[in-house]
Queue: 4 jobs
Job 1
Amino acid sequence: MLTAIVMIDATPAQIPEVAVAVTAIPGVSEVYSVTGDTDLIAIVRVKDHEDLASVVADGINKIPGILRTQTNLAFRTYSPADLDQAFDLGLGD
């Protein structure tokens, strides 16, 4: 499975509508309204690169009100459990 983080810049007056439209696209698991240099962040989880192209190029990028997107592919996922295990020194409690 591929995970992509898509940063979305939108027309300010259309941010809520853009967020709703992005969440309706199959393959988009979450959309966050955020502070900082971008307006929205979408988490995309798909089976392969072809599906990713469909979600981003054929879906997200065609939503009215979107000005720009930047897509980052995740290499690895680190959860709190993974990090605890990675830094466990084996000293016991």
Job 2
Amino acid sequence: MTILRDSNTSVTTFANVTEKVGDYLICAALDILPTENISVVSPTGVEYQGVREAQEVCAVSILRAGASLENAMRRGYTGRLSFGKILIQRDESTSLPTLYYSKFPTDVESKIVIILEPMLATGGSACQAIETIKAKGVPEENIIFVNILASHYGIKKLFERFPSIHLVTAAVDEHLTPSCHISPGLGDFGDRFYGTSE
């Protein structure tokens, strides 16, 4: 987190560290998945009683920054995986979210949905994304929100509206700036990951 927060970190290093943090987060999220018992035979010919995921997974990226966690999702999950996309833009003057686009698998309601979004500031975009996913028939308890950095305010807002979701995050910051950015934060995640900052 220190490397990600450092304003002197290069785009390449920022992206590489994001991948590493993403691997940890996805592993933690996958531990939440419901499982069922399965028996396999090991190379020594001994039967082993193990488990496997009981439901398929759909990872939903909140564009554009959420796509930064997709590779970690592909590396971490060994089952049948599908992806959805949501485009939500925050109005910088009002901090209110607007939904522009969403696309999900046709059977998304039968899956565990893992939302990929590196930053949770005010919770506006996250709440909009969850509302959109729930409108497709996904039960609230089947939604896992994976995030690199959250604010206390955003977490509180998220769980006030959606108490049954799961949240996996790497760090929590105490404050928001007057412009509703996380403080101390790490800047605009998308700009730093994609190298588009001015």
Job 3
Amino acid sequence: MSYEKVKQAKNVSIGTKKAIRMVELGRAAEVFVAKDADPRMTIKMVNLCKKMDVQVIYVDSMKLLGKACGIEVGAAVAAIVNE
């Protein structure tokens, strides 16, 4: 279900660095975090989202999140960006 949102989104920032940047700029609507991603990679993102009041949605795997983003490799984090 949540993967569909990522697939349908016009603007998605893929990867921890890009997603963090979008949250910091206040442009992220929602952030998707893969449950099987390394917590050292995702903890900063999750804490930032709490601070900035951005909804975090956990998805089952990096592989599926990457696929939903339209990339061949797994993605730990993806953010849906407001226009």
Job 4
Amino acid sequence: MKRPSKITTIVNEISQNLSTSSNIPFRPQKIRKLISKTPVNNTDSNPVNPHNPPKIVKPLTFQGEIDLALQYLRGTDPLLATLIDKHHPPTFDSSTPSPPFLSLAKSILYQQLAVNAAKSIYNRFLSLIGGEESVLPDAVLSISPQQLRQIGISQRKASYLHDLADKYVTGVLSDDSILEMNDEMLFEMLTSVKGIGPWTVHMFMIFSLHKPDVLPVSDLGVRKGVKALYGLNQLPGDLKMEEVCDKWRPYRSVGSWYMWRLMEAKGAKGTSSNVDAVAASVEAAAS
């Protein structure tokens, strides 16, 4: 029999060594160690790339997240960068968030009302139900539409409150499920509630859940801001808004915030009144 060559012997030894080392854990440990030292959101080693935006899972109230958002938006949108430099950074309530049911019920009560009028009705509602800690689905359903009308809540809004409460009682919605849903599912589920449309959902997502990538395409102030900032000939529709503001991803909530500030600076009447009312309802619900 012909003896194997020296080269063949060496190759066989290398193959045996590789096969016996497959269970040795030092390689994955070394890889994890290297990854852990990789800078996160560092523009020196990770330059802004609008075609490959970062994946954001943190709320805007997370420490340092606003700074990262502004840094990213400055790099992807020079026109927006001029607004960022002219206005103070966005602020969002970082205190303990209120339960989603309370925030949504309050949003319904504040809809299409001036802030002072909404506060007055909301306070009467709290007196009737027994305080904010008592704003629970069963308690809301126990109050008749007639009782709600007596404190200034319209018949239509009374039906909205009852529909929201009913969806909680029947298990269609819950505070836990709302906090766990992705943005698409959350939008679909909340707009199934009577009286809760896209605008209210977007405001809830921005000011209550502090989600970073929400574009309220139906908000007049944001649409006017986009038209003014980019010199468009007419107010952009939903598709145009998505197209123009795509460069803001994954911080479209922050970009929208600056559109409201832009229109306020231009003196546009009524630009932020509804926004302020809903922000007050969902962001200060626990105060």
